[in-house]
Amino acid sequence: MTSTFGSWTLPLWQSLLPLGRDAQTGGYQRFSYTQAESECRVWFRQVAADRNLRTECDKNGNLWAWWLPDNSKRELAGAIVLGSHLDSVPDGGAFDGPLGVVSAFAAIDLLRERGLVPARPVGVAAFVEEEGSRFGVACLGSRLLTGAMTAETARELTDADGVSLARAMRRAGLDPAQIGPDPERLARIAAYVELHIEQGSALAGMGAAVGVAESIWPHGRWRLEFTGRADHAGTTTLADRRDPMLPYAASVLAARTAAAEVGGLATFGKVVAVPGAANAICSAVHAWLDARAPDEARLGDLVERVLAAAQDSATGHGVTMSQRRDSFSQLVDFDLDLRDRLVRALAARKIVAPVLPTGAGHDAGVLAARLPAAMLFVRNPTGVSHSPAEHAEPADCAAGVAALAIVLEELACR
Ligand code: GLV
Ligand code: MN
Ligand code: MN
Q1: Where are the beta strands (DSSP E) in 128-253?
Q2: Which ligand is nearest to the CA of 360?
Q3: Ligand 1 site, residue 136, Cβ cutoff 6 A
Q4: What does pTM read for this prediction?
Q5: Are 198 and 109 found together in one domain?
Q6: What is the extent of the structural domain holding 203?
Q7: Ligand 1 neighbour 87 (Cβ under 6 A)
């Protein structure tokens, strides 16, 4: 980051940058309740403490920092909450999540520098396990908060080493028996606004530094398991094989074709070959399908086509196949009144913020089912995300902070 990021934000941004960064790739490995992520949690608490903001970790592992009106008697009703997440995908970029948290603190700094005080409580939230990189379900912290996922199901989720969420939480000093919906907390929030790097290049094409979210495509994750028979790669004739890699390969190709046909997106980004020897036919292949589409009918069609092709190919190769849906998110249309209010407040300060749909999931989308939620996007010049190459220009990050401060002033200081 150069100094154009803004003197108020540069040290804040830089203090987070080294945490969980892989020296080889430059990407981030910040998985929930690991050492790297707990360093990010310490960072969050320190940044809040430096600003005299009271912090708390809720029963689901989400972090909150509070800037309260002077006359507040610790009454949090009618709060405006900003925020995002600090965890990453494997080898993720620096911006996805952290930009929203850093910008939230920076927006508060900006208002304070101008001598403004909030008329209602202002919160900064960092939701846990947004990416689902460790326990497989994206937006786990906000799903638990809202009740979109049950505590029983969540406690049993396991990571790649078989460690359950319950165990990971206990190790982190949290009580997994307490997780679950938190309606009282939700009832105290009047609106949630998440700033996020755009995970596409629409803003770049429009020449705009910031945008406002219109909707999130419905999307979900499906786990496919192909079970065949382990055997020798050098002696088993092709006719004798029951190779689970073949229906897996057919599924990847079917996903590509079906996505193109329905106008959606389908990705196999994670696959585990068991036992994984170069000179052996696998006994099993586990694969994860991520599918998204503009509407639920097209998404259903897309997934049906992939699963049918997977089953057909499995049968043809003497392989058994099972599948289960790990997570699902419905279409989100962000609150129209809040969205319009944001666009108007920005326009009044001469900021033209185009309104965009996105295929990426966010905690704001989960919260939108329970309270008015909105998102600001910051231009991503290449559109690349979930990659170490993810980037936003310093000047655009500063524009994002300025936009978020305008929104915060509009919602919390009037
Ligand atoms: C979140 O980054 C997602 O997978 O959409
Ligand atoms: Mn992400
Ligand atoms: Mn994100």
Answers
A1: 189-197, 210-216, 219-227, 231-232
A2: 1
A3: no
A4: 0.95
A5: yes
A6: 10-215+331-412
A7: no
